[in-house]
Amino acid sequence: MQRKRSKHKQKGQLFIVAIVFMIGFIFIAQSIFFKYSQIENKEPFEAKDIELFENIVKVINETIKKTYNCDDAKDSFDKKMEKLKNSLLEEYGKMYLIEINYDLNCSNWLAVPPSPGPLNATIIITGKGRDVRGTFQFYHI
């Protein structure tokens, strides 16, 4: 009778050791797989500042193309640019520093490339230790 108890006791101890080993193996495997499945946050944010930059260029281009003539455009264009700057500051002000400098020259209103365009704009987006910048000529036509 004594022998049967010790056999059962050994089986129980072996079972506990096997369970502890399996749990340890599962935790090690899980930590290895988690390293490979983590989302890389760096790339989406880097892509976002380029996308934001392209969208600003697109909005400025659409604004000058939809403005009827330059004399009226000076005031309305300034107002539209001010509204654009305010909306960008409101939406992205915590993540990016956005600077838009522009010069509107009405004497070049109907110019076509390669002549100088009526609007020269410099756009600078600073964020996350990186700058995206560019200077563009926009044409009404």
Descriptive overview:
The chain is an alpha+beta fold. Helix content is 59%, strand content 18%. The mean pLDDT is 81.
In short:
This protein has 141 residues and is an alpha+beta fold.
Set down the secondary structure blueprint.
Elements: H1 2-37, H2 42-65, H3 70-92, E1 97-104, E2 119-127, E3 130-138
Antiparallel strand pairs: 1-2, 2-3
Beta strands, count:
3
- What is the H/E string? HHHEEE
| Mean pLDDT across residues | 81
Computed CA radius of gyration, to the nearest angstrom: 32 Å
Total tally of structural domains = 2
Biggest pleated-sheet summary: 3 strands, antiparallel
Supply the helix-strand structural class: alpha+beta
**Order of adjacent strands in the largest pleated sheet:** 1-2-3
Portion in helices: 55-70%
Question: What overall geometry do the principal axes of the alpha carbons give?
Answer: rod-shaped
